[in-house]
Write a structure and sequence with these properties.
The chain is α/β, with parallel strands linked by helices. Helix content is about 30%, strand content about 25%.
Length: about 290
């Protein structure tokens, strides 16, 4: 359930990382938190149990679009993986706008993955929600293990609704940002469709956004044959330009010009144009006539 804060012009979306015990949920959040700018994230809270931890923190991605002119803050949660903490999982899952299901790719964990996925479906159903209609993605974690099942097998056994999936090794930080980007894209599109009036860009937290490639260097200037220096030839006007420039003030110069330059005088100025900008040929010289009134 989205929270609106009119004072800060922010809306808050809740994303829950779900999955069996020790599948890598905590590792995902820890990596995201560690790579976030400090001024863009909230404090991480941790509720430790005997075998698992529930983590929570929020952050404000800089690179996300707005919905009705409001910035989107994202809250990330994990849930305990053990079955006997099901009450806590239900509590954390309540009001989730999107879910990341983290699956352990190792063959011995297949049944635990399937059990946890069914538990996710059941807990959402108890709250009046359906996983099929809830934005969610699946992360195949621990892809670097020697007994990891093929992705096709995992998809067939777990991915019931054909949602986007991401291969990852959370311990190395591989696939973590891609998973977060994928689920953030889904939840923001869902919110934009629901509330309208906004533009949703590709979600990517600032700290995880790859740097743009440097701009190419400017091409060197085009060399042209040397041309003669410009000369000014005055027609019907006394050669007074230097005298005018040496006068002490602008007012004196204007008075001098009014008194000494006849009306309708013409100054002809040769100008060299680079015709290669238009036809690929060399420079050409033309003359401009300046009419002095």
């Amino acid at each position: 359930m989205v929270l609106f804060n009119a004072a800060t012009k922010e809306l808050t979306a809740k994303i829950v990382y779900y999955g069996p015990g020790l599948c890598g949920k905590t590792t995902n959040l820890q990596h995201i938190y560690d790579t976030m700018p400090q001024d863009g994230r909230g404090k991480m809270l941790s509720l430790a149990t005997q075998t698992d931890r529930t983590l929570f923190f929020d952050f404000l991605p800089i690179e996300l679009g707005t919905i009705r002119g409001m910035k989107t803050r994202i809250q990330l949660y994990t849930v305990p993986g053990q079955v006997f903490y099901d009450a806590t999982r239900k509590l954390v899952l309540r009001g989730a706008d999107a879910v990341v299901f983290v699956a352990d790719s190792q063959a011995p964990a297949l049944e635990s993955n399937k059990e946890s996925f069914q538990n996710l479906i059941d807990n959402l159903k108890d709250q009046g929600a359906e996983l099929a209609k809830t934005p969610h993605v699946i992360q195949w974690n621990k892809r670097d293990t020697p007994n990891a099942l093929p992705v096709a097998t995992l998809n067939q056994e777990i991915n019931r609704f054909g949602v986007p999936t991401f291969e990852a090794c959370a311990m190395k930080g591989e696939g973590v940002k891609e998973t977060l980007s994928g689920v953030a894209k889904l939840v923001l599109k869902s919110l934009a469709d629901k509330y309208g009036g906004g533009v949703v860009e590709t979600p990517m937290p600032a700290a995880l956004t790859p740097k743009a490639p440097p701009l190419p260097a400017a091409p060197p200037p085009i060399a042209h044959p040397a041309t003669k220096p410009l000369e000014v030839e005055e027609l019907g006007v006394p050669d007074m330009l230097e005298e005018i420039e040496e006068l002490p003030s602008e007012g004196a110069r204007k008075t001098y010009q009014t008194q000494h330059l006849p009306h309708n005088s013409v100054v002809e100025v040769p100008v060299v144009l680079d015709r290669s900008l238009f036809s690929g040929e060399g420079p050409v010289e033309i003359k401009l006539k300046l009419y002095l009134k």
